[in-house]
Amino acid sequence: MDWLVAAAARRNPLMLRRIFALDRKCGRIVLSVREPIIGQMRLAWWRDVLRDGTKGRGEPLADALRSASAFPACEDHLVRIVDGWEELCVAGDSGEGWEEAVTAFARLRGGGLFGAVGAAEEAIGPQNEKAGAAWALWDLAGQLGPGERRDIVLRQAASFALSADGRALPRPTRILALLSHKDVARGRPSPSHMTPGLYARVLRAQFLGR
Length: 210
Hints:
about 210 residues
């Protein structure tokens, strides 16, 4: 939903698109690799790219992120996104410790992405990690097939949403919080594609704030 977040931005819609592009790249790495060690290596490369301005030159997204004026303010938050996906990657298919890994993933990925958006928007104040964690799990649940793992993810998302207050968030992340929190309260994952109903909800969240 990077188009939605960018449309709601007040200051830096292009940087917001880049933030979501990094998150999508990390997600594709983790959800597509069969060997966790391969996924870890690819994620480590992106972490190094964010921390070291000499690595990854010529890679379009890496260059675009580092050339943005908001990058210094967003850097630590972007690294948290990578770290969050790594938590899920390390857990792999092992049942032991998977729920703990999902909790860490949610806080790092969701808190990192919401924090990066807030930094790009020059928002002042806390970015509400719990609201970000609920969104991160809602989004992940939509990428998982029906089954026990998706049920676990949705339960954790609902728990984060119950104790989160997204009202003070910048408008882009406030919209994501509204959409995700309502769904997880009903045990629903993120939709796989845009529907007329979802589009109506987006417009209501964007213009009416509910």
